Amino acid sequence: MASSAQLSHQGSAHEGASVAGQLLQVVTFHVGPEIFGLDILVVHEIIRFQPLTRVPNLPAFVEGVLNLRGKVIPVVGLRQRMGLERKEPTGTTKIIVASVKGDVLGFMVDSVSEVLRIDASAVEPAPRIAENGQRYVQGVGKLENSLLLLLNIDKVLTDEESAAVSQTNDEVAK
After folding, report:
1. Any idea what the Cα angle at residue 58 is, between residues 98 and 151, rounded to 5°?
2. Count of the separate structural domains present in the chain
């Protein structure tokens, strides 16, 4: 995938449905050792990592903000958000710019793999092992040699965290 690829918004959205024959289009990426997928319909673009401006009083999992074509966008570090140790960005680190609850946020990931089409019938509901982790994962897709965790992007931040990030973002943009 190109480093700064614009993604087309073609394909089927899904809300956890498992209708045989329905294809889901997901952007796949790595956070730590796990492979995640994100519905392509919420993804605006994927960009190379660029230096971020740190903003005081944001939660530790918010890496900072970036100026993307004149718009200030908060960037969430998915490693920290998922309880993994923070890692310095590398050449493979990407920022996925996506729509979340009406806002545009960036999500820093270790790497982006590809856009996959998977049959909705190959997706099972998230296991009920850990409530905290399940909050982010809406389903598990079975691939040939691995499992794909389908991320529920709207639940990565709580409503309070979303409001705090939006409010700080508004203050920075002034």
Report:
1. 30
2. 1
Looking at residue 15, its pLDDT comes to 42
Residue 17 lies in a domain: no
Which CATH number belongs to the domain containing residue 37 in this structure? 2.40.50.180
Say what the pLDDT of residue 6 is: 36
Residue 68 resides in a domain: yes
Q: Is residue 137 part of a domain?
A: yes
CA distance 132 to 18: 24
Q: What is the rounded distance in angstroms from the CA atom of residue 46 to the CA atom of residue 63?
A: 17
Other Cβ atoms closer than 10 A to 153: 21
Residues of the chain whose pLDDT is less than 70? 1-21, 129-134, 168-174
Q: Helices in 24-158 by DSSP H: which ranges?
A: 78-81, 131-136
The pair of three-digit structure tokens given for residue 120, joined into one six-digit string? 């909705």
Contact 91, 6 (CB under 8 A): no
pLDDT computed for residue 134 by the predictor: 57
What's the chain's Rg over C-alpha atoms? 16
Domain limits for position 118: 23-173
pTM of the model as a whole: 0.82
Distance CA 16, CA 125 (A): 7
Q: Is residue 9 part of a domain?
A: no
